[in-house]
Design goal:
- The chain has four helices and two strands; from the N terminus they run αββααα.
- It has helices at 2-20, 71-74, 86-101, 118-138; strands at residues 37-43, 56-62.
- Strands 1-2 form a two-stranded parallel ribbon.
- It is elongated.
Length: 141
């Protein structure tokens, strides 16, 4: 039963393939041939994008948006607490509880071991300020 269907498909295949060929057009996009070249151009202020031809596609980008990230989302600053992961929230709550309880290495005036962490807290604050300054200098305007 499958052999007659297979035979009929093989006999009809050359006829179908010949019916699908179209006469060749003049050239380029109208003939359905793909472009031979894709060119990426970075434009400065006031420059125009060059025209694409039949043999190439021109993709233009400007220098004012090198990463295609909208300006309102670029320098967002610190992440608000409601947008942080639960692990960060737990770590913050744990640190606040340690300082309030006067545990060692917390730089708290409460408790017997609170004073031992003041130098550590100062060093962490200095490192955070340096990191913020470096990040602010390295961001793209």
């Amino acid at each position: 039963m499958i052999r007659p269907l297979l035979f009929a498909a093989l006999v009809a295949l050359p006829g179908l393939a010949g019916a699908q060929t179209a006469p060749a057009a003049t050239e380029g996009a109208s003939s359905g041939t793909p472009p031979q070249r894709v060119r990426s151009v970075t434009l400065g202020v006031g420059q125009k994008c060059p025209q694409s031809s039949d043999t190439e596609i021109v993709i233009c980008s400007t220098l004012d948006q090198p990463y295609r990230i909208p300006k309102q989302f670029r320098d967002s600053g610190p992440i608000p607490a409601q947008n942080q992961a639960w692990g960060n929230r737990v770590a913050t709550a744990d640190q606040v509880g340690r300082v309030a309880g006067g545990l060692p290495d917390t730089c708290s005036a409460v408790g017997s071991g609170g004073q031992s962490g003041c130098a550590l807290a100062t060093n962490r604050q200095w490192a955070a300020e340096r990191r913020a300054q470096r990040d602010a200098e390295s961001t793209v305007p």
